[in-house]
Amino acid sequence: MEYWCRVTVDGVPRLGLRREEQILIHEGDLFAKPKPTGQQVSVDEAEWLAPVEPRQFLGLWNNLHEAMVKGGNQLPVFPLYFPKLPGCLNRHLADISPPKGFADKVIFEAELGVVIGRECFQPSRDSIDDYIFGYTCVNDVTAAEPLLEDKEFTQWSRAKSFPGFGPVGPWIARGIDPDELQVQAFLDGEKKQDYPVSDMIFSPRDAVWRIAGEIVLYPGDVISCGTSVGACFMKPGQKIEVRIPGLGSLLNRYSV
Predict the structure, then answer these.
(1) What are 24-40's pLDDT values in tens digits?
(2) Are 170 and 250 in contact (CB under 8 A)?
(3) Measured between alpha carbons, how far is 224 from 229 in angstroms, rounded to an integer?
(4) What is residue 130's DSSP assignment?
(5) How far apart are CA 143 and CA 186, in angstroms?
(6) What CATH number is given for 1-49 in this structure?
(7) 142, 165 Cβ separation under 8 angstroms
(8) Please, what is the end-to-end C-alpha distance for the chain in angstroms?
């Protein structure tokens, strides 16, 4: 298994490959066999960046059976996705700050993210793993008030695209089976979410295959696979951790 990340070294963004408690710095393109430089940084001292800068950052809604039943929603026939605009991208250990006026009702959503590794359009179902680079932790932060502000149009993209509302990372895990993973969320250490990827209506691979059947996906694009029950509002100063055992842990603080 490999864990790829991006960190800042001497003020410059660099690629890194985590090996135990060290990050081995690489140069080149993440998706074209980057080469080690011989430089390394301690994990404890790393200045993290989001592991990719997606051209397209997509999120899924109503993709967990348990949440669907609790919400009284219908079983979707196709992945229900929305764009999180690239400006929302955030990193491990950074603050999440809401825009003025929406601080009281901002929700965390612990999710598994799929990172695309090759340009992908209308792939065969059997070849989908060839287009997936790996998997990462995502917090699909949502401002609840603007989401339903207009009764005629649910504003998914607006509610989920404020600056800092897309923490991703701290790294991308390769060589892992996503279907066996468990997604958890801890708010100030208290477990709030704990659900299996196997409860997804569209599995990570199936979601990629179906979405790529209609639009082009590019290297570095992220598809966040949706969340389940237990997501709730955050209060100023609270720490929110998205933890996926065997993959990683994404930690941020809610700061107003």
Answers:
(1) 999 999 999 999 999 99
(2) yes
(3) 16
(4) G
(5) 19
(6) 2.30.30
(7) yes
(8) 38
